[in-house]
């Protein structure tokens, strides 16, 4: 979670509209959705160091990944629907997209 906040802090100056370049005063709903998605990915990453879950708990990593994929779609839709796109949103989205793919592959190789 510290990494998520550090990455956000490092890129916070990119929270501006692409039109006139003025900084937004808040993160906006779409960026908050992206940060929730990042938190879910952090939880998914934790499963890499745990023994394989048994029973109903076997579904948790898959549900975390599905939730992250769903939130990935939702954050972009919300940004466009609210006309609140920003370079920060693009940066966060691309970063967490890459990590999401990396975690999916790493988890799959860990379970095989």
Radius of gyration: 16 Å
Main β-sheet, in a few words?
Answer: none
Number of helices, where a helix is a run of at least 4 consecutive DSSP H or I residues:
4
Q: Secondary-structure element sequence?
A: HHHH
Uncertain segments: none
Strand content bin: under 5%
Distance between the termini: 27 Å
Instruction: Tell me the overall shape.
Output: elongated
Averaged pLDDT: 90
| Structural class label | mainly alpha
**Quick one: how many beta strands?**
0
Number of domains: 1
Proportion of residues in helical segments: 55-70%
Secondary structure blueprint with pairings:
Layout: H1 2-11, H2 29-46, H3 60-81, H4 87-111
Helix pairs in contact: 2-3, 2-4, 3-4
Explain what you see.
The protein has 112 residues and is mainly α. It has one domain. Helix content is 67%, strand content 0%. The protein has helices at 2-11, 29-46, 60-81, 87-111.
List keywords for this structure.
112 residues; mainly alpha; 4 helices; elongated
């Amino acid at each position: 979670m510290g990494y998520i906040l550090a990455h956000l802090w490092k890129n916070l100056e990119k929270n501006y509209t692409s039109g006139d370049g003025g900084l937004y005063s808040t993160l906006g709903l779409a960026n908050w959705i992206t940060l929730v998605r990042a938190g879910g990915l952090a939880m998914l990453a934790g499963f890499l160091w745990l023994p394989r879950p048994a029973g109903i708990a076997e579904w948790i990593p898959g549900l975390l990944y599905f939730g992250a994929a769903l939130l990935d779609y939702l954050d972009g839709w919300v940004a466009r629907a609210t006309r609140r796109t920003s370079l920060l949103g693009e940066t966060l989205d691309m970063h967490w997209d890459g990590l999401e793919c990396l975690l999916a592959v790493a988890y799959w190789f860990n379970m095989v």
